[in-house]
């Protein structure tokens, strides 16, 4: 699974090396191109990594329609020229931009918005293929949640590295320095009663991560993971990770 590779990427201490490893991992999963783009809350100071730089030859990254439309929620969206008719609100200029991206190899894409809790930046990943709409929905979209978790973990690591101007984060300071940066996306209403860290823990556990893996990804102890999980389960009225996963995905189906 992609998330198994993410644990290795967590140990990379250079943003460029992290991007290279991310691209290689996504390529092994069948993606031809990837874009990682974040901006400040006022759409300034873009941070861009892109395997197809020609996409932004005529339009600056901070004007990418992904930021304007897809990031209004945390829902994973099928994007690209193959899905353009599902987004009638795009302007003619934006349509031209999307069609030029298809010429660069990003014909069908997953738009994966994200924002770490505690960070004032937002954006996410656009991972693209040359597939047609039917093939994409049959072969790629069913893996969307797995890909989102992988991208969330990479996003968190990018935030850590770039917050420190790409200076490696000492082991002794990781937990204190970045405990505010959490990877759980927006979750259904019942999860609002949880603390931010509880949401992160139960989200990772519901994705199939072990308590040891969750502890390593969150730079906390296994004992602390267990305490957070027990507290979250009690608040949610559930007994295990399977019931948490059911709450997450039932919420997605209802939205």
Automatic annotation (TrEMBL):
Gene3D superfamilies: Transcription factor LuxR-like, autoinducer-binding domain, Winged helix-like DNA-binding domain superfamily/Winged helix DNA-binding domain. Signal peptide: none annotated. Keywords: DNA-binding, Transcription, Transcription regulation. It comes from Sulfitobacter porphyrae. Residues 187-252 form the HTH luxR-type domain. It comes from the Bacteria. The keyword DNA-binding applies. InterPro entries: Sig_transdc_resp-reg_C-effctor (IPR016032), TF_LuxR_autoind-bd_dom (IPR005143), TF_LuxR_autoind-bd_dom_sf (IPR036693), Tscrpt_reg_LuxR_C (IPR000792), WH-like_DNA-bd_sf (IPR036388). This is LuxR C-terminal-related transcriptional regulator.
């Amino acid at each position: 699974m992609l998330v198994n590779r993410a644990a290795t990427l967590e140990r990379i201490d250079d943003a460029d090396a992290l991007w290279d490893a991310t691209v290689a991992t996504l390529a092994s999963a069948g993606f031809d191109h990837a874009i990682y783009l974040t901006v400040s809350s006022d759409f300034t100071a873009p941070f861009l990594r892109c395997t197809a730089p020609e996409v932004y030859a005529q339009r600056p990254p901070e004007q990418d329609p992904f930021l304007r439309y897809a990031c209004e929620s945390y829902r994973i969206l099928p994007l690209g020229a193959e899905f353009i008719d599902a987004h009638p609100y795009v302007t003619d200029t934006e349509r031209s931009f999307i069609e030029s991206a298809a010429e660069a190899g990003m014909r069908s894409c997953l738009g994966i918005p994200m924002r770490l809790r505690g960070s004032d930046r937002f954006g996410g990943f656009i991972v693209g293929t040359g597939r047609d709409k039917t093939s994409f929905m049959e072969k790629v979209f069913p893996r969307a949640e797995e890909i989102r978790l992988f991208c969330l973990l990479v996003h968190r690591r990018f935030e850590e590295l770039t917050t420190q101007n790409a200076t490696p984060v000492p082991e002794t300071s990781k937990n204190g320095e970045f405990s505010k940066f959490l990877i759980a996306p927006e979750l259904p209403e019942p999860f609002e009663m949880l603390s931010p860290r509880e949401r992160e823990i139960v989200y990772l556990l519901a994705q199939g991560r072990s308590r040891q893996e969750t502890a390593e990804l969150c730079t906390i102890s296994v004992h602390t993971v267990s305490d957070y999980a027990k507290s979250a389960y009690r608040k949610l009225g559930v007994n295990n990770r399977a019931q948490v996963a059911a709450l997450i995905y039932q919420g997605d189906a209802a939205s």
